[in-house]
């Protein structure tokens, strides 16, 4: 058994200096850990990214094949959500606008937040994973009692362009849409995910 060496009996005991005016506990300033700190490497996060199909559609994303810069986000809260994203997080690809308010696909984060002087702000990079087997319309999301009560941020803050999605909400939406291509689910002949 390892033991610490004993000090000779003539050594004075070690004493820490007392501060003249110690701060009472109520005056101690607490610092917040940076976003993502303390998160386990395997803790996947889920998000929803909104886009106008006339500006950048699912078809554009899927046809691109590689990573695409997700930029142009000006709202501070939405930017903070982008900054909180980690590699391999999954995001619903949501078409906004009058004609097609629906979740149409899934992308994954391939590069975390970075400053981009070209666009005068920051961005993350995303790559298409797969199309929803059945798009999930906004009206359908609003009718689902579990999503209304379950803290789905899209329903609470409908104008925010980047919103976090709780794991249980992610699962429910995937279930509503029959999953997405590349999710590992078996699909029967009638197109239903098993």
UniProtKB/TrEMBL annotation:
Residues in EVE domain copies: 45-176
Keywords for the protein's UniProt record, in alphabetical order: Nucleus
Gene3D superfamilies for this protein: ph1033 like domains
Subcellular location: Nucleus
Domain of life assignment: Eukaryota
One GO cellular component, as annotated: nucleus
Organism field: Punica granatum
Major place of residence: nucleus
Pfam families: EVE
Compositional bias annotation for Pro residues: 1-15
Name of this chain's protein: Thymocyte nuclear protein 1
Signal peptide from the UniProt entry: none
UniProt region (Disordered), positions on chain: 1-39
């Amino acid at each position: 058994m390892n033991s610490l060496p004993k000090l000779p009996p003539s050594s004075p005991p070690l004493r820490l200096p007392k501060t003249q005016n110690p701060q009472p506990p109520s005056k101690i300033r607490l610092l917040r850990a940076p976003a993502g700190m303390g998160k386990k490497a395997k803790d996947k996060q889920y998000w929803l990214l909104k886009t106008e199909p006339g500006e950048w559609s699912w078809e554009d994303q899927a046809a691109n094949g590689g990573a695409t810069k997700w930029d142009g986000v000006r709202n501070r809260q939405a930017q903070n959500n982008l900054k909180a994203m980690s590699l391999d997080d999954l995001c619903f690809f949501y078409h906004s606008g009058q004609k097609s308010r629906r979740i149409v696909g899934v992308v994954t984060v391939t590069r975390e937040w970075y400053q981009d002087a070209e666009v005068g702000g920051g961005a993350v990079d995303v790559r298409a994973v797969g199309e929803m087997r059945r798009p999930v319309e906004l009206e359908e999301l609003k009718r689902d009692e579990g999503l209304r009560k379950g803290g789905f941020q899209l329903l609470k803050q409908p104008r925010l362009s980047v919103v976090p999605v709780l794991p249980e909400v992610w699962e429910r939406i995937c279930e509503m849409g029959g999953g997405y291509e590349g999710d590992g689910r078996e699909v029967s002949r009638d197109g239903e995910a098993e």
